[in-house]
Backbone:
């Protein structure tokens, strides 16, 4: 418990420091959330992403994303997923510090936990259901189209569309997320 | 055949004629001679079935030939055929053949032949048994084949009329409960049924048991392929692919055939909303006089499933159906034919985990 309070204090100090310092314009943190579509089971999902971004110059940037999500509703399956991505972006119209349109892509590793319901009938015709767990872990590529708009010198909002897939599985996770970011 | 005896007899001559011809109009044929006055027997080996012969003998010596003896009439009858002949499969590699003959038909040899239906010759007998045996166990079973057995009895008067029985040997062990699993699936052109964004295809399967003209819903299965590569097998775990473990004649719910209806699941409906009209099934039965069942209940039936238009709802991709007869190879591959959107699904079954 003491460790928890220690971490909390450190985080509060860090936030306090962020609020008082001259921000490093190159680093930013974004919280992304939106709707997705999971290829395993063809089910819609809700996703939440933590994105840490670094702007290399006016044209190039990079980011590290950790995302989680779960499917919204399906009659036969429940799925949760966790993924990490490393991406490179290019801003074809230059990052003008106000609006930044980016196209990017990179590597993703995604771990999906699926639980399926299976319907059976006993010999007497009585129906019963049972559930089975199926994990699916994949190395994949991702493609992202992203647009960020700076509200002020510190905060930004944005919208991004993405897809994660590979040659064997096809589309694994695709979606659209709203972004809320802060310059670190 | 004997004739009177005299001390000066040197031997006897045997004559034969056909009984249904007038003895006056048909000249008797000398068929043999025996030497010595005490040698009074002769075996005629040149006779045909179902013909009545008349015989007489004469004695002869150096002075000449005697008058003919009295005539004796003999009918050469064919060996009687078996009054019954039955082949019953008892286990995977064992069939019992049983037969009966009339009470006075106890001599000769039994010869049993067999051929696969469609083969135009029997070849050599599979066994030759000395009467009065009345059973034989065939351990050389040809699974998945329709086999005709032929039984004849050979005696000194010839070969009997044959008796036949036909058995359709299943691959499955008729004495045990057998299983059906969906082992693997592959699709010829996945992009036709599932867009890239949707990833791998998922299939809903409606399993129906067919017995006679009755169709019973067995299970509702759901599984997804492991890949979206064309023509690449995806192994289905037994958790998802188990259809039944109790397929056995006279055990539980018996079905001649299991039929599998496949749709590619795009979330178009929930299982509970699916309705399947299975009234369109047609069954083709072999003539019961031609096929003998391997069991009293098990019929040699070829079952054809027929598809119809309203067994799925919009939102999913109709794929097609396959079916598996009890007599089919449990490890067979079945294709669904062309799906409306293109391509075909191939399903491989198995009977063990």
Residues:
């Amino acid at each position: 418990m003491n460790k928890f309070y220690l971490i909390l204090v450190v985080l509060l100090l860090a936030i306090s420091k962020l609020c008082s310092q001259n921000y490093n314009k190159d680093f930013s943190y974004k919280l992304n959330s939106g709707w997705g579509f999971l290829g395993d089971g063809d089910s819609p999902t809700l996703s939440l992403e933590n994105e840490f971004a670094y702007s290399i110059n006016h044209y190039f940037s990079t980011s590290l994303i950790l995302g989680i999500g779960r499917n919204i509703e399906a009659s036969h399956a429940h799925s949760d997923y966790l993924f990490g991505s490393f991406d490179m972006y290019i801003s074809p119209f230059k990052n003008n510090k106000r609006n930044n349109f980016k196209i990017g892509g990179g590597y993703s590793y995604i771990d999906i936990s699926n639980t399926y319901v299976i319907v059976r009938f006993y010999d007497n015709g009585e129906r019963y259901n049972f559930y089975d767990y199926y994990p699916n872990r994949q190395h994949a590529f991702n493609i992202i189209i992203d647009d960020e708009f700076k509200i002020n010198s510190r905060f930004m909002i944005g919208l991004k569309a993405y897809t994660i897939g590979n040659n064997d599985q096809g589309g694994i996770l695709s979606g659209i997320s709203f972004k809320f970011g802060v310059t670190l | 055949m004997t004739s009177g005896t005299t001390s000066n007899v040197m031997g006897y001559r045997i004559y034969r004629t056909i009984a249904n011809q007038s003895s006056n109009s048909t000249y008797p044929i000398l068929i043999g001679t025996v030497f010595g006055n005490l040698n009074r027997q002769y075996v005629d080996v040149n006779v045909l079935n179902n013909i009545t012969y008349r015989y007489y003998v004469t004695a002869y010596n150096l002075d000449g030939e005697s008058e003919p003896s009295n005539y004796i009439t003999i009918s050469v009858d064919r060996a009687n055929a078996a009054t019954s002949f039955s082949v019953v499969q008892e286990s995977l590699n064992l069939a019992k053949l049983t037969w009966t003959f009339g009470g006075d038909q106890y001599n000769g040899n039994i010869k049993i032949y067999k051929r696969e239906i469609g083969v135009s010759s029997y070849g050599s007998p599979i066994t030759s048994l000395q009467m009065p045996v009345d059973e034989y166990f065939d351990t050389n079973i040809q699974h998945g084949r329709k086999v005709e057995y032929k039984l004849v009895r050979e005696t000194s008067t010839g070969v009997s009329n044959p008796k036949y029985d036909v058995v359709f040997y299943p691959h499955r062990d008729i004495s045990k409960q057998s299983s059906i699993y969906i082992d693997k699936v592959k699709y010829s052109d996945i992009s036709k049924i599932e867009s890239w964004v949707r990833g791998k295809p998922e299939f809903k399967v409606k399993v129906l048991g067919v017995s006679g003209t009755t169709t019973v819903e067995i299970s509702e299965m759901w599984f997804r392929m492991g890949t979206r590569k064309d023509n690449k097998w995806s192994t289905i775990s037994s958790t998802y692919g188990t259809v039944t473990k109790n397929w056995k004649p006279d055990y539980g719910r018996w079905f001649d055939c299991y039929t599998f209806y496949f749709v590619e699941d795009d979330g178009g409906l929930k299982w509970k909303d699916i309705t399947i009209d299975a009234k369109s099934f047609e069954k083709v039965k072999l003539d019961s006089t031609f096929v003998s069942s391997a069991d009293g209940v098990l019929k040699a039936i070829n079952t054809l499933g027929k598809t119809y238009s309203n067994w799925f709802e919009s939102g999913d991709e109709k794929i097609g159906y396959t079916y598996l007869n009890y007599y089919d190879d449990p490890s067979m591959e079945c294709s669904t034919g062309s799906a409306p959107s293109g391509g075909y699904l191939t399903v491989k079954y198995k009977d063990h985990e």
